[in-house]
């Protein structure tokens, strides 16, 4: 988080942000960080374990049906980003599916790492600028490849249809670099 713009002289907005942080299931240390340290909170994140993705997807489809919405085959309630799980929906998700996430308030200067395949949502508390970077760690190639496969089934007009992570290219170049290093050191490797 590189910038948080807080309007001056709007005490009611500060109270609203505090209520949002509290309703967002933030812990007491985070709340104190805002109220006592006067740090600038920019965003409230809810991050869920990747293993719970299918349960969350099923839950969102169920809620959509209850509200009379369609669930087209070439759309995905998670990738569409058409839902925000407020306190009542998060509570219901936990009660009905046993899924509970983590609430993180990102203050000015904070970094938030989201594990590969982890469903998440963000609520901006003030005007803010975040710098985001996707990366593929060796431990999460499997999850990234799985996400790429999910994106393929979205409609061609969907914003996530394209393969943004380029996992196959990452794997190709990693193997190419490894083979290049081995070839460059081939003579030293063949010595007894």
From TrEMBL:
Cofactors, names only: Fe(2+)
Pfam families noted in UniProt: JmjC
Gene Ontology molecular functions: chromatin DNA binding; histone H3K9me/H3K9me2 demethylase activity; metal ion binding; methyltransferase activity; transcription coregulator activity
Enzyme Commission numbers on file: 1.14.11.65
Gene Ontology CC entries for this record: chromatin; cytoplasm; histone deacetylase complex
Domain text: Leu-Xaa-Xaa-Leu-Leu (LXXLL) motifs are known to mediate the association with nuclear receptors. The JmjC domain and the C6-type zinc-finger are required for the demethylation activity.
Protein name, entry field: Lysine-specific demethylase
Classification lineage: Eukaryota, Metazoa, Chordata, Craniata, Vertebrata
């Amino acid at each position: 988080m590189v910038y948080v713009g807080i309007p001056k002289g709007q005490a009611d907005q500060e109270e609203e942000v505090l209520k949002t942080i509290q309703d967002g299931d933030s812990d007491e240390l985070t709340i104190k960080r805002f109220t006592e340290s006067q740090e600038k909170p920019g965003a409230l994140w809810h991050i869920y374990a990747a293993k719970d993705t299918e349960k969350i997807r099923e839950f969102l489809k169920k809620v959509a049906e209850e509200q009379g919405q369609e669930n087209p085959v070439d759309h995905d309630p998670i990738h569409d980003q058409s839902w925000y799980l407020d306190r009542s929906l998060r509570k219901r998700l936990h009660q009905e599916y046993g899924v509970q996430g983590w609430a993180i308030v990102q203050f000015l200067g904070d970094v938030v790492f989201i594990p590969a395949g982890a469903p998440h949502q963000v609520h901006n508390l003030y005007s803010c600028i975040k710098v985001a970077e996707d990366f593929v760690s060796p431990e999460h190639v499997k999850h990234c490849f799985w996400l790429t496969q999910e994106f393929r089934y979205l409609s061609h007009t969907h914003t996530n249809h394209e393969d943004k992570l380029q996992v196959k290219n990452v794997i190709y170049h990693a193997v190419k670099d490894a083979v290049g290093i081995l070839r460059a050191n081939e003579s030293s490797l063949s010595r007894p």
